[in-house]
Amino acid sequence: MDSINRMAIELVDEALDFAGELGIEGYELDSGATVIDFGVDADGGVEAGMLLAEIQTAGLATVQTRMGEVAGTPRPHVELSTDRPALALLCSQKAGWELTFDDFDGLGSGPARALVGEEEEFHHLGYYDEFDLTVLAVESIDLPTDEVAEHVAETTGLEPSAVFLPTYATGSLVGSVTGAARAAELAVFNLFEAGYDPTNVLSINGSAPLAPVSYDESVAMGRTNDAVAYGGRVHVTVSEDFDEFDRAISTAGPDYGVPFEQLFEDADWDFGAVDPDVFGPAQVTVDVVDGPTYTLGETDEDVLADSFGL
């Protein structure tokens, strides 16, 4: 298997080459690390968001949009498909790197995590990457500082000049696109947490509606999570049956039906206090090869309409 960081770097090069067309901006920090503003001060856009979702999945997924509906109104949907779900979604796309400093707070996703390999997914899959450049996509309302870049460099064992940090706010078009692109990832992660071997997931397709952008990060975080939990739909093909496929969907949580902004407020914005089972797509169809097919969950357009202000 080729390095997922190498594959992601090729897409980062593409982003930098077409920065003007994508509405993004790249620049170098004093440490030598490269920050790419996908949606903090830069406008970004849907195309930039789709490219960033491809970067987050290390080029192992296809990302596109289609026109659909929410509550009878036209609404773009983001679709992601991959035949390498364990690597693309768990080892790369998953947002598993917390970045907390005195003057910066963010959440990292992307293939840089595979150079560290401390999360349970890497131990289970036995996958650890090696490459001389790395990419960590950062979700934050602020652009990364040298302190952040040097932390990523030290943790991955690289020089700061080898670190690329594409960054976006949740409340941006890129934030809405990359959030919607997580429906499939959340389904696979939930199955892994339930004890299902992710290598049995052969192929997966996910979609979710594009949440309206709000510059209020509290509203944006609520809407992007609602888009997946109440509008996300996933089709997955697996090689082995399982008696807990229903753990993949958001309805597995007792708080299903409550908009995420309210859930976060009730938890005083302590995300760890929110029942993790509610993070997932609304509906999943599972095809077991040479076996049964299951369809689990359902979308809730009433919650979406309220969340999106329709």
Automatic annotation (TrEMBL):
Gene3D superfamilies in UniProt? Methenyltetrahydromethanopterin Cyclohydrolase, Chain A, domain 1, Methenyltetrahydromethanopterin Cyclohydrolase, Chain A, domain 2
Where located? Cytoplasm
Superkingdom of the source species: Archaea
Q: Does the keyword Endoplasmic reticulum apply?
A: no
According to the UniProt entry, the coiled-coil residues are none
Describe the reaction catalysed, as an equation.
Answer: 5,10-methenyl-5,6,7,8-tetrahydromethanopterin + H2O = N(5)-formyl-5,6,7,8-tetrahydromethanopterin + H(+)
| EC number from the UniProt entry | 3.5.4.27
UniProt entry keywords in alphabetical sequence: Cytoplasm, Hydrolase, One-carbon metabolism
The GO molecular function terms of this record are: methenyltetrahydromethanopterin cyclohydrolase activity
A single Gene Ontology CC annotation of this entry is: cytoplasm
Record keyword Zinc-finger present: no
The record, for InterPro entries, names: METHMP_CycHdrlase (IPR003209)
Q: Which family is it part of?
A: Belongs to the MCH family.
Q: Describe the task this protein carries out.
A: Catalyzes the hydrolysis of methenyl-H(4)MPT(+) to 5-formyl-H(4)MPT.
Question: Which NCBIfam families has this protein been placed in?
Answer: one_C_mch
Q: Which HAMAP family match?
A: McH (MF_00486)
* The protein, known as: Methenyltetrahydromethanopterin cyclohydrolase
Organism encoding this protein: Haloferax lucentense (strain DSM 14919 / JCM 9276 / NCIMB 13854 / Aa 2.2) (Haloferax alicantei)
